[in-house]
């Protein structure tokens, strides 16, 4: 492989990591972070990026111990045994389901709001969620090629709407709204921040794609996860500078109702341009996230349950993938923000925080597996990652409301 092809692959891998992180979670982050304020939010985002980049490198270290391509469940099986494999499988399922519950709930909000704006008719949120769930089931049935083609177009819309929204909306930002600081309330958003840096399921594929080149892999993971950090901070600056914390349609009300930031925005900002751009961005963010997560989950279930992706098998997989989260979102409306937090604290943190630390400890010090050391510091750093992960889980349990 020549240097041009090599650099192109590194660039592509970096964008894959970034794209895996950026998505519908952005719609809930400003609502969850508003109580703490902009300055605490910036510091916590940096902490969460550092934590997730470190655990991603730790997972890569474990992956490189094995010569063949292995997924996270297989890595857990070989380092932690059958119990570890079961935990990894269960946590993946929990994470995927939690994220899809969040996306289905958010899609219902968005479609209902847009139809009401266009027609003046009040539409139930469950109807919007049902429409999108049925539409996605068609895409999933048609397979990866169809999903890929649709996703490429939607990603262009996502990037364009975000850039235009930042440019247009920045003229309406109020600096006084960014001065609020409440450190005690800031930690509430950590679980959702964590899941917004989730790229770890890509690590085995990246290792193969970059021919197990440690230097290139390290760069792709660190740089690829840093791109969302910059985008998230710009997004927080924009939204926290547009919407007040208190009052009607403020962040406190949005948090209490489990609303997305864009719903609060459409009720508080007078500029139709800003509102339309925000809702377009929300639409693209939800659809792209839903497509990627649901497609991954279909493959995950097909592998784990040994279901062949033929005609009847595809129908079973679509039903198993989409029906449970739709029913959950139907009976628990407004669960978008809670589902994001649960996905982060009980799914992503345990799966991509606790388990990489446990796998690395077993491989390094019990099984003496050999490979490049990507996270130095020995047992002390592994213990720190484990403790921080448990602390985040406990935080979510204490602050669940």
Automatic annotation (TrEMBL):
GO terms for molecular function: aromatic amino acid transmembrane transporter activity. One of its GO terms (biological process) is amino acid transmembrane transport. Gene3D superfamilies: Amino acid/polyamine transporter I. It is found in: Cell inner membrane. Keywords: Amino-acid transport, Cell inner membrane, Cell membrane, Membrane, Transmembrane, Transmembrane helix, Transport. Its main location: membrane. The chain crosses the membrane at residues 12-32, 38-60, 80-106, 118-141, 153-173, 185-210, 217-235, 280-302, 314-333, 339-361, 373-398. GO terms for cellular component: plasma membrane. It is a multi-pass membrane protein. This is Tyrosine/tryptophan transport protein. It comes from Waddlia chondrophila (strain ATCC VR-1470 / WSU 86-1044). The gene is tyrP1.
């Amino acid at each position: 492989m020549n240097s041009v092809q090599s650099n192109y692959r590194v660039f592509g891998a970096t964008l894959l990591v970034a794209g895996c992180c950026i998505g519908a979670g952005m719609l809930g982050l400003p609502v969850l972070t508003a109580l703490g304020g902009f300055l605490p939010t910036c510091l916590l985002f940096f902490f969460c990026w550092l934590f997730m980049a470190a655990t991603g490198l730790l997972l890569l270290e474990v992956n490189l111990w094995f010569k063949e391509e292995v997924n996270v469940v297989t890595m857990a099986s070989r380092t932690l045994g059958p119990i570890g494999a079961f935990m990894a499988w269960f946590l993946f399922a929990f994470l995927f389901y939690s994220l899809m519950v969040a996306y289905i709930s958010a899609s219902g909000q968005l479609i209902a709001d847009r139809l009401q704006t266009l027609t003046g008719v009040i539409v139930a949120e469950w109807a919007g969620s049902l429409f999108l769930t049925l539409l996605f089931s068609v895409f999933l049935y048609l397979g990866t090629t169809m999903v890929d083609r649709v996703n490429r177009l939607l990603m262009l819309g996502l990037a364009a709407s975000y850039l235009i929204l930042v440019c247009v909306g920045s003229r309406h930002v109020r600096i006084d709204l960014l001065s609020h600081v409440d450190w005690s309330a800031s930690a509430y958003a950590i679980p959702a921040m964590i899941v917004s840096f989730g790229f770890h399921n890509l690590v085995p594929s990246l290792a193969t794609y970059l021919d197990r080149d440690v230097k290139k892999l390290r760069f792709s993971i660190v740089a690829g996860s840093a791109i969302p950090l910059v985008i998230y901070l710009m997004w927080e600056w924009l939204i926290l500078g547009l919407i007040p914390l208190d009052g009607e349609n403020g962040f406190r009300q949005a948090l209490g109702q489990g609303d997305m930031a864009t719903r609060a925005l459409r009720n508080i900002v007078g500029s139709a341009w800003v509102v339309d751009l925000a809702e377009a961005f929300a639409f693209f963010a939800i659809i792209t996230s839903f497509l990627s997560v649901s497609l991954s989950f279909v493959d995950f279930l097909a592998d784990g349950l040994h279901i062949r992706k033929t005609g009847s098998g595809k129908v079973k997989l679509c039903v198993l993938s989409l029906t449970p989260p739709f029913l959950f979102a139907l009976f628990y409306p407004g669960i978008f923000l809670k589902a994001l937090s649960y996905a982060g604290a009980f799914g992503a943190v345990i799966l991509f925080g606790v388990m990489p630390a446990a796998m690395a400890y077993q491989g390094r010090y019990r099984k003496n597996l050999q490979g490049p050391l990507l996270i130095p510091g020995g047992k002390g750093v592994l213990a720190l990652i484990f403790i921080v992960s448990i602390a985040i889980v406990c935080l979510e349990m204490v602050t669940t409301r």
